[in-house]
Structures are given as structure tokens and as C-alpha cells.
Amino acid sequence: MSEIKNPLEIYGALAKTNCGECGVPSCMAFAAAVLQGQKKLVACPYLDPAAMARLSQNIVQRRSLEDDHQQAISQLQQQVAGLDFSLRAPCLGARLVDGNLAINSLGKDFIITPAGEMVSECHLNHWVYVPLLHYVIVCQGKEPLGEWVPYSTLPGASEWSQYFSHRCEEPLRQLADAHSDLVFEMLHLFGAKPATLSGGADHSLVILPLPKVPFLINYWEPEEGFPSKLNILLDRTAGENINAQSVNLLARGIIEMFRQLILRHSRDGKLF
Ligand code: SF4
């Protein structure tokens, strides 16, 4: 029998009574949980021992998202480990501190060791870890020109473009609508600088998630009969200093950070 990758193949061997004795509400949920490594086949008392033996040998558990992130970070760390930091620092707009790279992101230092480990007073997650390591590896040191282009024009952005719009720009617009003062106060706290107002926007601010990868955030407040608008533009040089996926991760990380801060600091502790 070939490798089992589909829960239906496990489901086919179950009693299909949805009795719940395995600790999940249905046989289908149990099959999915087994494939994801959250349940063992032995948790179902009604599974025939021969079927259990056969399935056990052929189940390929799906990797968790966390495993994928960790693998991506490990691969990037291996590439960082071969770099000469004294040559990379000026290219990245970073400082060399005791043999480590200090990269400023939104006013906070992130220290990267020669082994690719990261240290910061900020919370570290894959939204910051992956793009920073990637930046260390690929940044060509192009100085931003102050010419702003949409995310969709970045090389390789086509498959991420919709995601960027739905998971980055739209959630930030909603946050700005619901907590305008708080959002702009946070942007200023994270070093945002006013930019020339773009396309009639009410607010145009430049932030620096990476020293050579600025974002321009434009926000149009809602007006009678017209909803608000928000876009995040990139410098024309962005594609030479980082890739589209890392820009996406950075933007997502910033928005998630804002969501957490708003939950903590808004008057009613609610996002909307
Ligand atoms: S114990 Fe077995 S039969 Fe009952 S719901 Fe779970 S998988 Fe289905």
C-alpha cells in the first residue's frame, strides 16, 4: 500500500459511528487528527487491529506550519553562516557589534549572530525572523529612491499580490478606521515619518521595517458616501533588496503587532 496522505483513506477503515470515544466528535475529524499527528490510531477502540497495523505503516503525517517555519529559518541560518558580516553590514545599512549584525527595524535593534541566531528585546516570530535573515542574504544595498510602486510590481509578487491586499492592506485599513488615533500614534512611535501626501491621501507616512526597505502607508479617511482607502507602497528598489514573500511577511508581522497592541491599549480592549 502506498503512503497515506488523505484522511479519507483512514476514514474508510473506521466504524463511522461518530461515537466520540476517541475524544473528537466524528470519525472524519479523528482521521484528520491522526494524519496531523494530533491523535493516535489506538485512540479508537473500534479499529480492527489488522487495519491499525496496515494504516500505521503507511501514514505520512502532515508537517505543521510551525515545522515549515522552523525549516525555513534553519535553511536561511545555514546561508547566513557563510557570510562575512564586515562586508555585509554597510550593504545592509546595519551596524557591526561585537562580530554580530545589528539591524534596525521600526526603531528596534535585532541582533543577528554569525550562526544566524537572532536576539532582540522584541518578540521574535517567523514574521520577523524569516525576512530579516533573507534580507541579510540577498540585499544588494540599493539605496531607496523615494519612488513608490505598488507591491504587485515587485518581482515574483504575482502569486502573493492578492494575499498582500487581503491580509495586509485591508486589515490595516480596518484598524485605522476603528482606531485611527491609536494606529497613527503607534506608527509614530515606531519611527514613521510624514511623507509628501500621495494621491490626495489624508495621511502618508514612511516606516522602515528594514534599513533599505521603506514602506509608504497612504490612508484616505472615510467621507460621506465613500469608504476609507489604504495602500502600502514600496520603493522602486525594494525588489533588489528583498523578495516579495519577505515583504509580505514583514507587513503581516507589523499588522499582527498592531492588533496585539490595540487589544492591550484600546479603551474597551476590543479590535472592532
Ligand atoms: S472512537 Fe472510533 S468510531 Fe468512535 S468516533 Fe472515534 S473514530 Fe469514530
TrEMBL record:
Gene3D superfamilies: Electron transport complex subunit B, putative Fe-S cluster
Organism, as annotated: Thiovibrio frasassiensis
Keyword field: 4Fe-4S, Iron, Iron-sulfur, Metal-binding
4Fe-4S domain segment(s): 2-61
MF (Gene Ontology): 4 iron, 4 sulfur cluster binding; metal ion binding
The protein, known as: DUF3786 domain-containing protein
Keyword match Flavoprotein: no
InterPro entries to which the protein is assigned, alphabetical: 4Fe-4S_dom, DUF3786
Taxonomy of the source species: Bacteria, Pseudomonadati, Thermodesulfobacteriota, Desulfobulbia, Desulfobulbales
